[in-house]
């Protein structure tokens, strides 16, 4: 049975839309079953799936290699190819993520608060699953498994819409996850992969009111904006990471340099990569130059106001554009700017931040506290690299994304953030006057 919106579409488009809706209906049907799984059952699924992925590493790598070849032919950037690429170490990390989630406390059924009314009715607020959880994401096939693990442990059913660039990898991973479910006597429909041939399938997912309870986009600014602005089902915005790192005059300079170089170069294709270094104007020209040269020695290209940078000896800088200040580079490029102390740093961050992660190097406790209090971001790093904003590092096992919005969830999202709550009141035949 098709919906009215399908009637005037081309046969190919109608087939795609119906596939999305059919899978959404199947997810809705099995959601009550998954919601009632016991903690031991959930953990068995995750542990078994982890081993099944490891046992089929060569098959996964074969599928991923097809994606890499197709990606190179399509002209994908090195950064996107890095996000897409799997190897034995990354697959082992994905499997370990499932095991870590299995070892975490099950949030479902947790009593958030409770009391007894004056009339004797007992009331409590209890965590419950969200239901059908749509995921729209780009390139990274590890998100396929992370979403599955976190969804199952929190009693949800994931509907996964990965990118066309990772089609073969995602298809193989979901088949292996479904095989695990079936082997353990659970419905294969507890995880499903949606078509990715056209962008229209995203719109089908994010407008499936009544079938999908929540959609989480994870990717670049374009994808996130398209989902948030076009959705008629609730969404959680996982924003991009235009992350800054400020080095104050009170900083231990060697440590400050180590933190900013780590934040920039550890892995440039991730959202917690440092994109701008802010230098206190009270630093000596020699100290400022030392910071910039350390980045250049690490093969990082410096962008900024060339005249400002050359005034303290910086060579080979690139004139920054407004786009440089506003967006992620996701590459071995960083912006550098001199600011008027912590107030200047905070003002710059307020103008350009995406609200993801902002960091500072300082030894002055008052400066650190001011930065922590006044910077508006999901994560604030005091004398630590921006690279630490990561669900696994936070002890979450894995993350579904990093929320930069302020409602329901903010920062790395894992099990508790994938639940809602309901109130349960128990009386003895009470009626209300």
From TrEMBL:
Pathway: Amino-acid biosynthesis; L-proline biosynthesis; L-glutamate 5-semialdehyde from L-glutamate: step 2/2. Its EC number is 1.2.1.41. InterPro entries: Ald_DH/histidinol_DH, Ald_DH_C, Ald_DH_N, Aldehyde_DH_dom, G-glutamylP_reductase_CS, Glu-5-SA_DH, GPR_dom. GO terms for biological process: L-proline biosynthetic process. CDD domains: ALDH_F18-19_ProA-GPR. The keyword Coiled coil does not apply. This is Gamma-glutamyl phosphate reductase. It comes from Corynebacterium pseudodiphtheriticum. The gene is proA.
């Amino acid at each position: 049975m098709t919906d009215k919106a399908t009637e005037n579409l081309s046969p190919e488009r109608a087939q795609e839309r119906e596939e999305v809706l059919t899978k959404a209906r199947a997810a809705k049907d099995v959601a009550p079953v998954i919601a009632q799984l016991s903690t031991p059952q959930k953990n068995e699924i995750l542990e078994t799936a982890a081993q099944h992925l490891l046992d089929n590493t060569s098959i996964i790598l074969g599928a991923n290699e097809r994606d890499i070849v197709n990606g190179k032919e399509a002209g994908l950037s090195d950064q996107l190819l890095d996000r897409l690429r799997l190897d034995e170490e990354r697959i082992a990390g994905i499997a370990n993520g499932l095991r870590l989630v299995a070892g975490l406390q099950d949030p479902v059924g947790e009593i958030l608060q409770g009391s007894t009314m004056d009339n004797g009715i007992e009331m409590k607020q209890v965590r419950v699953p969200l239901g059908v959880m749509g995921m729209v994401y780009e390139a990274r096939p590890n998100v396929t498994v992370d979403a599955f693990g976190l969804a199952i442990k929190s009693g949800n059913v994931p509907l996964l819409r990965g990118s066309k660039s990772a089609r073969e990898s995602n298809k193989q991973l979901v088949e292996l996850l479904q095989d695990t479910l079936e082997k353990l006597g659970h419905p294969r429909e507890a995880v499903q992969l949606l078509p990715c041939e056209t962008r229209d399938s995203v719109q089908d997912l994010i407008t499936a009111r009544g079938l999908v309870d929540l959609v989480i986009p994870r990717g670049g600014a374009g994808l996130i904006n398209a989902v948030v602005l076009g959705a008629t089902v609730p969404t959680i915005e996982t924003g991009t990471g235009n992350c800054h790192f400020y080095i104050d005059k009170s900083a231990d300079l060697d440590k400050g340099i180590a933190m900013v170089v780590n934040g920039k170069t550890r892995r440039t294709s991730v959202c917690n990569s440092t994109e701008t270094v802010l230098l206190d104007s009270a630093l000596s020209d020699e100290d400022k130059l030392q910071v910039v040269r350390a980045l250049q020695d690490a093969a990082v290209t410096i962008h900024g106001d060339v005249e400002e940078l050359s005034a303290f000896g910086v060579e080979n800088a690139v004139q920054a554009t407004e786009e440089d200040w506003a967006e992620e580079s996701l590459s071995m490029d960083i912006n550098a700017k001199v600011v008027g102390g912590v107030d200047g740093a905070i003002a710059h961050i307020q103008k350009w931040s995406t609200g993801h992660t902002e960091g500072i190097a300082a030894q002055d406790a008052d400066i650190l506290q001011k930065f922590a209090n006044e910077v508006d971001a999901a994560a604030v790093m005091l004398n630590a690299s921006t690279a630490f904003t990561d669900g696994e590092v936070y002890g979450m096992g894995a993350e579904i994304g990093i929320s930069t919005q302020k409602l329901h969830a903010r920062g790395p999202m894992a099990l508790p953030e994938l639940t809602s709550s309901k109130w349960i009141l128990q009386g003895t035949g009470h009626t209300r006057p």
